[in-house]
Design brief:
The complex is a heterodimer of chains A (476) and B (303).
Chain A: E1 2-4, E2 20-23, E3 25-26, H1 39-57, E4 62-63, E5 66-67, E6 69-72, E7 77-80, E8 83-85, H2 90-111, H3 114-119, H4 121-137, H5 140-148, H6 153-179, H7 184-192, H8 198-218, H9 220-226, H10 228-232, E9 242-246, H11 248-251, H12 263-266, H13 276-279, H14 300-312, E10 319-323, H15 324-329, H16 333-338, H17 343-365, E11 369-375, E12 382-383, E13 389-399, E14 405-412, E15 418-420, E16 425-427, E17 431-441, E18 449-459, E19 466-475
Antiparallel strand pairs in A: 4-5, 6-7, 7-8, 9-10, 11-13, 12-13, 13-17, 14-16, 14-18, 15-17, 18-19
Helix pairs in contact in A: 1-4, 2-17, 4-6, 4-8, 6-7, 6-8
Chain B: H1 7-31, E1 33-36, E2 44-49, E3 53-56, E4 60-61, H2 62-81, H3 96-119, H4 123-127, H5 130-143, H6 145-148, H7 172-181, E5 183-187, H8 191-194, H9 196-210, H10 217-235, H11 261-270, E6 272-276, H12 285-298
Antiparallel strand pairs in B: 2-3, 5-6
Helix pairs in contact in B: 1-2, 3-12, 5-12, 7-12, 9-10, 9-11
The chains are: A alpha+beta (476), B mainly alpha (303).
Chain lengths: 476, 303
């Protein structure tokens, strides 16, 4: 980050006394977030449940006598319920990434780092791990005391219990992750028999270790130092974006006071300077200093402050979702919300809906058959004993359906083309075959050179499923 | 083993590598701290551009710096274990050739039993097995299709393997021998012996008559005399050829180099030479066995 020196910054250069080595790195200060309850915490937990039920549950579902969602890397086939995606379908992955990017744009433009605060795995697993930590070690003060205290059997017991619970959770997460790539029921059986393959074991442990490390120790540091999205989301903010903001005009001057004190007479703002908003913050910042890059938008401080305001008998919302422009103009909540509908968000939403609709339409209309025609390169053309000219091709026919199918091959493009191929072509469920075929034609009346011909492969039992693929026929 | 003509190059490169790594460590150490006045906070990194543009110090956590040192430790361990330091091969003795051989051994261990199973069977039995045919087709498309075509139909100069007409015999053993040892088919140029262009045309018309094609009977009569003295040595008195020599049957409709009058005259005048390369150096016994079975299965006699 760059700055012009002048009013606030004094550079060390030219200083006459230079007698101290100072590190440019800092020792991380551990953050002990205090437990928080309330409306937004409820939403956060709802998202934890929603994402984790899907994540842990999905690989156990069955569809068509196989795992409903399975990314079979070895066979290069992705099964997603009724859908089987082949490497040729990589365009859908591109579309999916575009949808993800546009959603991020949209949600960030509307309400800031919604993804970070509610849905990001880093936030979700940290939330779960902190819950475990609280159940075992207690809340903020208890945890701080425990960390400061000397090692006693009780401390050892508490720490061991916490890590045992964390590791169990992390390994289950790693196991589930691997279960998306290798059938999870068999994986479970081999895990019980302690006979996991070396790579399966590696990935279970590696993913588990990453979960344990990121959610247990790294926490806010992942967002602060490692995550690129955290940084570039601020580029998508504008003055109408909903951000978690402290109402400076209402809060200042802050100060501690008794409930019975008349704050107007005492010349105090609504902020009682209790510091609970700082204590609950998972990234350890003070939201009263304004929007900061560390803020992940989890809204814990909103819940905490609202509870304090209730106790003091002040109106809620000293810290609330508001926009920069809204705070400046003193808009009502309704007016601020209305600004969510603006050119930028409407454009993002239109694009997003268009692409999602396009994705579903193309998936619905997808032909479950793929054909490649590869012309023999060494032999251009040969003559048969009857004096006909013959070209040879390899047809790569892929049946992307999960049932055995029969196909008919035909060829057109030149008068009197004869095709010699095994008919019908039987291809078992979700597999491909290579068939050499030869095409003959009477050369009378044909110009020497290259002619376009078209192979057509059609499902023998369902003529709607048909693919045409062009190739060349050489005449000499 | 050194890839360099002179050992000095290896030392030179090793030196550059080691000095670079040490320089990285020194640079990291130098840039991770800053001299400041007593009591002054590290507000900026101390770098100044354009007279007054300074870089704010947003300190990274200390463990991040240790990660940088970790990469240096990693490079030292890596260079000790694997080749990378000049001509030093590393204590693990890893080589790309060794890795390749290991992979091949693993593949052999996996696929060897399948091949072994088919090798123990008779060619005719293998030809009837659908799995063996699938493997055979893949081998054929890899090793044979370049000349014989994907459909094994051959082309000019390369025989069709599916028409039931065999230059060297279509028995399983003969096919295996053709693949393993290769074949060289030579038709010597006979221009002088048959008496130039006219003589060759006479013989060609006799050859046309052998397979019942339209021909000039006078020329054929003249050609027959020459055929019975010259060509008979390989193609036999009846023109049915000789499978020991690979001399083709001239009475059928199969023409390796074209069956038109012009093509036959050219064959007689200039001769022909065909070569099927030996594959026993490239393919092992089991693969040749599977290929022979696949080719045998293509021909009409197997049906």
């Amino acid at each position: 980050m760059l700055a012009r020196s002048g009013d606030t910054l004094v550079t060390g250069h030219g200083s006459p006394v230079t007698d101290q080595e100072s590190s440019l790195y800092e020792v991380r200060k551990k953050i002990y977030p205090r437990a928080v309850h309330g409306w937004w915490a409820g939403w956060r937990w709802a998202m934890v449940w929603a994402t984790q039920i899907i994540y842990y549950g999905l690989p156990w579902l069955t569809w068509n006598d196989r795992q409903a969602v399975l990314f079979d890397l070895a066979a290069r086939k992705f099964y997603i319920f009724g859908l089987v995606l082949w490497p040729q379908d990589v365009v859908y992955l591109t579309v999916l990434l575009i949808i993800a990017a546009l959603s991020l744009f949209l949600f960030t433009a509307v309400a800031g780092r919604l993804w970070c605060g509610y849905a990001c795995p880093q936030t979700v697993y940290t939330e779960i791990f902190m819950w475990v930590e609280r159940r075992i070690e207690g809340d903020r003060m208890a945890r701080m005391r425990l960390d400061k205290a000397a090692w006693t059997p009780r401390k050892l017991a508490l720490k061991s219990a916490k890590h045992a619970a964390w590791i169990a959770l992390a390994l289950w997460t790693g196991f589930t992750f691997v279960g998306y790539f290798t059938p999870i029921q068999e994986l479970w059986a081999s895990a019980l028999a302690v006979s996991l393959g070396p790579w399966e074991a590696f990935w279970v442990v590696f993913y588990g270790f990453a979960t344990w490390g990121n959610a247990g120790f790294m926490r806010e540091q992942v967002c602060k130092y490692m995550c690129p999205y955290a940084r570039f989301q601020s580029a998508m903010f504008d003055r109408d974006t909903l951000i978690i903001s402290y109402d400076r005009r209402r809060g200042e001057p802050r100060g501690a006071r008794n409930r019975s004190v008349d704050r107007v007479a005492a010349g105090l703002g609504d902020c009682v300077d209790c510091g609970i908003c700082v204590q609950v913050c998972p990234t350890g910042i003070d939201i009263r200093n304004g929007l900061q890059y560390e803020c992940i938008g989890c809204a814990a401080c909103i819940d905490a402050c609202d509870q304090v305001m209730d106790r003091m008998g002040y109106p809620r919302g000293l810290i609330r979702y508001s926009s920069e422009a809204g705070v400046e103009r003193g808009d009502t909540a309704r007016q601020i919300l209305k600004r969510a509908l603006r050119a930028r968000t409407l454009l993002y939403a239109t694009l997003l809906l268009g692409i999602i609709a396009g994705l579903f339409v193309t998936l619905y209309l997808r032909t479950p058959l793929k054909v490649d025609v590869i012309r023999d390169r060494a032999t251009l053309v040969r003559e048969t004993s009857e004096g006909l000219l013959e070209n040879v091709y390899r047809l790569q026919v892929m049946n992307t359906r999960e049932s055995a199918r029969r196909y008919r091959v035909s060829v057109s493009g030149l008068p009197g083309l004869q095709l010699s191929a095994r008919q019908p072509l039987e291809i078992s469920s979700a597999s491909s075959v290579t068939v050499p075929v030869s095409v003959r034609v009477d050369p009378a009346g044909l110009k020497p050179g290259s002619h376009e011909i078209v192979f057509q492969v059609t499902d023998a039992d369902e003529p709607r499923v048909t693919v045409s693929e062009a190739s060349r026929f050489y005449v000499r | 083993m050194s890839d360099f003509a002179q050992d000095a190059w290896g030392v030179y490169i090793a030196l550059i590598t080691v000095v670079s790594i040490i320089a990285c460590a020194v640079l990291l150490k130098a840039l991770s701290t800053r001299r400041v006045a007593k009591g002054e906070k590290v507000g900026t990194t101390g770098h100044t551009w354009d007279e007054d543009l300074t870089e704010l110090n947003h300190p990274l956590p200390r463990w991040w710096m240790w990660l940088f040192y970790l990469t240096i430790v990693f490079s030292a361990v890596y260079l000790a274990l694997y080749p990378g330091l000049g001509s030093f091969g590393g204590y693990l003795g890893w080589t790309s050739t060794g890795q390749f051989e290991q992979d091949m051994q693993r593949a052999d261990a996996r696929y060897g039993p399948i091949y072994k199973k088919f090798l123990a069977q008779d060619v005719k039995q293998v030809a009837a097995d659908a799995d063996a045919r699938a493997i055979g087709q893949k081998l054929f498309l890899n090793y044979c299709a370049q000349c014989h075509g994907s459909d094994a139909g051959g082309s000019r100069g390369f025989p069709s393997l599916r028409d039931g007409d065999w230059l060297y015999g279509g028995a399983p053993e003969a096919i295996k021998a053709s693949i393993a040892e290769g074949r060289t088919g030579v038709m010597p140029p006979q221009g002088q012996l048959v008496g130039g262009d006219e003589g060759a045309k006479d013989v060609a018309h006799y050859v046309l008559s052998l397979s019942g094609r339209t021909h000039d009977s006078l020329r054929a009569f003249r050609g027959k005399v020459k055929f019975q003295t010259i060509c008979v040595a390989c193609h036999g008195t009846d023109g049915k050829g000789n499978k020991l020599l690979g001399a083709p049957d001239l009475t059928d409709k199969v023409w390796l180099y074209g069956g038109s009058e012009g093509a036959i005259i050219e064959t007689i005048l200039k001769g022909r030479k065909g070569e099927m390369p030996a594959h026993k150096q490239i393919l092992d016994e089991a693969k040749i066995h599977l290929l022979a079975a696949y080719v045998y299965g293509l021909s009409p006699q197997s049906r």
